[in-house]
Amino acid sequence: MARLTDIGWEEFHALPLEAKRPYLARAEGDGMPYHTLFAQQFDRPVLERLCALSNRIRFINKSREGALYLKSLLAHKRAMLYFSQPSSRTFLSHLAACQILGLTTGSVRDAATSSEFKGESHEDSIRTFSSYFDMIIMRSPEQGLAEKMSWELSNSSRPIPILNAGSGKDQHPTQALLDIYTLVRSFEEKGGIDGRTVTFCGDLKRGRTVRSLSYLLTNFRDVKQVFVAPKELQVPDDVIATLEAKGVRHEISDDLRAATKMSDAVYMTRIQDEWDDSKGESAKIDTSRFKFGAEELALLGPDSIIMHPLPRRDEIATCCDHDPRAMYWRQMRNGMWIRTALIAGTFGLEKSIMECGY
Ligand code: CP
């Protein structure tokens, strides 16, 4: 069993992401994650277990008795939600997930209200949180901070799990989990995810959800990935290199309508201009052909779906919202259930929940 206490930070940091997987797993050896940092931690069996656990939890939660049982499971634990970047869905769905399992929560949503304002480092702040809480759910603009802190905490006198709720431009693993869960549920009566075509459209260069989901999809057989974007915002080379190394079919395109016709899922994303290097940089890019509206909806297959991690701006017209193929609202709710499953798995509750009498 690989442990973060057995490896120095520099050596761990330098490992390829997939090689980090065993260091981040629960010491009990059940395959569930202890720290959740990257999409590369999740293989297909664990994804399927998390989806099954989510289904089980949402079923149990339907009855008052079941909901009270779930609420009793982690009533002795506390979680810190440390979000130093704005968030609605990821913050609230993790908060709701904690509430479903009975965890008490604390939060910092603006570093200016913590002692970081007085010059305390992120690292010292997170060590502080670990003194009071049993898990840290964190979103940070700083790529790699969650990884560094997971190593630091595992090597401290009070190791607690870290759950990455979005880091820099690189990873958003729990968003990718909820995206997979949405795809699994959307196609469960129609042959599953294998063999599907998934199109990503929008700002693929800076969208961390795209990198995480693109990787998770490589766990499924013969899924084709299509990347539709203006050339300035096309998917980064490292994502394509991963697909090529794994022999995954993929295509680069600038034609959303052609891609829509052949896709089982169209995953729209907004322009992430908060990452612009200079003011107004994104506004100079012509994004008019990368929006999903009534004409694209007419080209979408009857069993195909539209997804979006949200928030959106104008990249999906509101006229699509009531179409049964618009999955983005359900995607949000799925996020609450799979995050509940992930937290339950992190605390070793999978077997108890799957086998309980509710
Ligand atoms: N999808 C997502 O991460 O949304 P929020 O930024 O609202 O959390």
Keywords summarizing the entry:
358 residues, binds phosphoric acid mono(formamide)ester, 5-stranded parallel sheet, alpha/beta
Low-pLDDT ranges: none
Oligomerization status of the protein chains = single chain
- Strand arrangement within the widest β-sheet reads 7-6-5-8-9
Query: What does the main sheet amount to?
Result: 5 strands, parallel
Helix content: 40-55%
Terminal-residue CA separation: 34 Å
Instruction: Tally the helices.
Output: 14
Mean pLDDT: 96
Number of DSSP-assigned strands = 9
Instruction: Give the bound compounds.
Output: phosphoric acid mono(formamide)ester
Radius of gyration: 20 Å
The helix-and-strand class reads alpha/beta
Strand-and-helix sequence, N→C? HHHHEHEHEHEHEHEHEHEHEHH
Principal-axes shape call? globular
Strand fraction equals 5-15%
Describe it.
This protein has 358 residues and is of the alpha/beta class. 41% of the residues lie in helices and 12% in strands. The chain contains 14 helices and nine strands. It has helices spanning 9-14, 17-24, 44-60, 64-73, 89-100, 122-132, 145-154, 173-186, 208-217, 237-245, 256-262, 294-299, 328-346, 350-355; strands at residues 78-83, 104-108, 135-140, 162-167, 197-201, 224-228, 250-253, 265-268, 305-307. It has a five-stranded parallel β-sheet with strand order 7-6-5-8-9, sandwiched between helices. It has a four-stranded parallel β-sheet with strand order 2-1-3-4, with helices on both faces. Helix 10 links the parallel strand 6 and strand 7 (250-253). Helix 3 packs across helix 13, helix 6 crosses helix 7 and helix 8 packs across helix 13 (328-346). The longest helix has 19 residues, at 328-346. The protein is globular, with a radius of gyration of 20 Å. The mean pLDDT is 96. Phosphoric acid mono(formamide)ester is lined by residues 87-91, 166, 175, 309-311.
